[in-house]
Specification:
The chain contains 13 helices and 13 strands. By secondary structure, it is α/β, with parallel strands linked by helices. The chain has an eight-stranded mixed β-sheet with strand order 8-7-6-9-10-11-12-13, with helices on both faces. Strands 2-3-4 form a three-stranded antiparallel β-sheet, with helices on one face. Strands 1-5 form a two-stranded antiparallel ribbon. The longest helix is centred in the last third of the chain and has 20 residues.
Length: about 375
């Protein structure tokens, strides 16, 4: 791309104010102030209106200031403004990579991604990455029903879920895909209809089965970009089966759960972070009592009773989906890879409760290099 043919424009989200020999750019909770004794920055911002190329902007400024400023200085200033995310190139046309339907339906998504894009990045490519993504999810209960609805809202192109249960009246305090008249009916069938009613343009499939071994997961999600685990039965065994599957498939796992007054989330990327077995080894070494409790729970096949309210479900599922968006688009750093993040209901604060590294002698993931 010839930089001189770029047509920069200040993004709509950033109001620009000129006062007191300065240029102030606002938006998203902060104001950036540029000193402007000569007025050249005001002219620069006014010229970045989407009509002028950078080459033309250089000419405008040099003519006004009798070539006091070099081409290099002007382009450096534009680059500095671009690093803040304040400007975009109007030459990027969304219809080249997205359909008219996608441009309309995901307009607010695209506005959001615009806040991350520099002058040299196409804001539409982020939505395209979501449209091309293939996401698997295990469980369409409290957390799963929220997550799959959000994924459909984001425009994830292909979503495949595993769910075997039926609707119980106790589900309705938090499971948003089901209604009172659905009691006793298959969650898989209900979820499929509800999601297609909400977004008929995505590919959504539900496999109605109970996971009983890692092969069930491998079979279902081969070729997918990631798996989300939000099912909880059988609790310990299911996590171990999923761990074996994601290592075999070499794809990330995003996991979340609730534990009374706190919500929990962690992410595993094979070859980057330690897997669940690495985590267990860390717990065994550093917290032997907790490890023995896990082993006892596993041997007794304890599942516990669900302790969940909808607001806390919404908090943790929102965080999970945000991490997934970051992973699929690359717009930010993940915060939960090899970390157990907890959200305290009483204070709504987050912290990293546990962390673990990849074990060189792990029987599950030691051979994976990403």
């Amino acid at each position: 791309m010839d930089i001189m043919n770029i047509k920069p424009k200040v993004k709509k989200a950033y109001p620009v104010v000129y006062m007191n020999n300065s240029v102030c750019v606002g938006g998203f909770g902060k104001i950036t102030e540029y000193a402007d004794e000569t007025g050249v920055l005001q002219l620069l911002f006014e010229s970045m209106n989407g009509e002028n190329t950078i080459g033309e902007i250089v000419s405008i400024i040099q003519k006004e200031y009798d070539e006091k400023f070099s081409e290099e200085e002007i382009i450096d200033s534009i680059n500095e403004i671009s690093k803040e995310g304040f400007i975009e190139d109007i030459n990027f046309i969304g219809s080249e990579i997205l359909s008219e339907y996608e441009l309309s339906r995901y307009h607010r998504n695209i506005n959001f991604f615009s806040s991350y894009a520099s002058l040299f990045e196409n804001k539409y490519k982020y939505q395209k990455k979501l449209s091309d993504a293939k996401v698997g999810i295990i469980g369409l209960g409290g957390l799963g029903s929220h997550i799959v609805y959000d994924l459909a809202g984001l425009g994830i192109g292909t979503i495949k879920a595993i769910e075997f249960d039926t609707v119980d009246i106790s589900n309705l305090n938090r499971q948003i895909l089901y209604n009172f008249e659905d009691l006793g009916k298959s969650k898989a069938e209900l979820a499929k209809k509800r999601i297609y009613d909400f977004n008929p343009k995505i590919n959504f499939e539900v496999v109605e089965k109970k996971v009983e071994k890692s092969e069930d997961i491998i079979e279902c999600f081969e070729g997918f970009d990631l798996i989300i685990l939000v099912a909880d039965r059988p609790k310990v065994k299911l996590a171990l089966w999923v761990n074996e599957a994601i290592v075999s498939l070499n794809i990330p796992l995003f996991c979340a759960g609730l534990e009374a007054q706190r919500a929990l989330q962690y992410t595993i990327i094979p070859g980057v972070s330690g897997c669940i077995e690495c985590w267990r080894s860390t717990v065994k070494e550093e917290h032997p009592v907790s490890y023995e409790m896990l082993e006892k729970r596993k041997s007794l096949n304890l599942t516990g009773d669900n302790t969940a309210i909808a607001p806390l479900v919404s908090v943790i599922t929102g965080i999970v989906c945000a991490e997934i968006v970051k992973y699929l688009t690359g717009i930010g750093e993940l915060t939960t890879v090899g970390n157990l993040k907890s959200i305290d209901m009483d204070t709504m604060t987050t912290k990293i409760s546990e962390t673990w590294n990849k074990s060189s002698d792990c029987t599950i993931c030691s051979s994976i290099n990403r």
